[in-house]
Q: What sequence folds into this?
């Protein structure tokens, strides 16, 4: 099975600098050139502002940015009925500070 989708969860990304933006732009460009669709989730306001000011938001596209990972997965599933998602593993970043659970998803063609 060939990789079709990548969802990058930026929930814990509080800030970005110019070199990180360049790395992200290069990564997303290379993935797209290889036919892989990239989605970003959980961006903080400060990060979104830097994306907009740097031109990355225009390059990447607003339609591929979602509030939560599950929203991106739902979008993929609705757009492509032959795609299903399965939880890969459960991840709890800090049990003391947050009981919220995040899921990493693997999306594959059946």
A:
């Amino acid at each position: 099975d060939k990789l079709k989708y990548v969802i990058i969860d930026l929930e814990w990304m509080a800030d970005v600098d110019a070199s990180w933006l360049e790395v992200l732009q290069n990564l997303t460009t290379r993935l797209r050139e290889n036919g892989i669709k990239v989605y970003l989730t959980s961006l903080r306001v400060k990060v979104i502002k830097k994306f907009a000011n740097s031109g990355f938001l225009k390059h990447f596209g607003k339609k591929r940015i979602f509030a939560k990972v599950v929203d991106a997965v739902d979008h993929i599933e609705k757009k492509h009925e032959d795609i299903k998602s399965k939880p890969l593993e459960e991840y709890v970043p800090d049990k003391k500070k947050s009981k919220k659970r995040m899921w990493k998803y693997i999306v594959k063609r059946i």
Q: What stands out?
A: Residues 85-110 have pLDDT under 50 and may be disordered. DSSP finds four helices and five strands in the chain. The first strand starts at residue 5 and ends at 9. The two ends are 9 Å apart (CA to CA).
